[in-house]
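Why does residue order matter? Because the sequence determines the fold. Keep that principle in mind as you read this record.
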Amino acid sequence: MSKRCLLVLSTFRYADEAVACALDRSEGRLDVLYVLGHATVDTVTHNVSSEGFLGTAPRAEVENALETAHRDVMLERLDTVAAEAAVRGITVEVEQAQGRFYDLVEARADAFDSVVLVRPPRPFWQRFFGSKTAKLAERLRARGLDVTLVEA
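Structure:
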């Protein structure tokens, strides 16, 4: 039985090192969960519009521009993953999902032997308090999964 690897990416969670690690761990097939950043789009547009900078029409334009930018980033990254996988003879299966990053990963992780997570960039002082991503990795390891955590 071949080992299954899940690479989890999003708009703010991407690292070439994570892609390489996931490809090294996969045996013929790599599963990618790409978490769409709609919560970020909603937060940005809400913050800008609540400050009184935007009316209804400009707000919709900002939302559309942000969603387009997120989609373009996603497609570019998935193309990069697919190209690197093709060189190694590995097929890539992609699932796009919208929701809370941590919930989506926990719900899907048990179907895999290993999971590669990317921790988003964070300020230096936050490193003393741990991260939600590191805590997620600990929970997955406790369930018997091989988890690699990569810094973005």
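The chain is about 50% helix and 20% strand.
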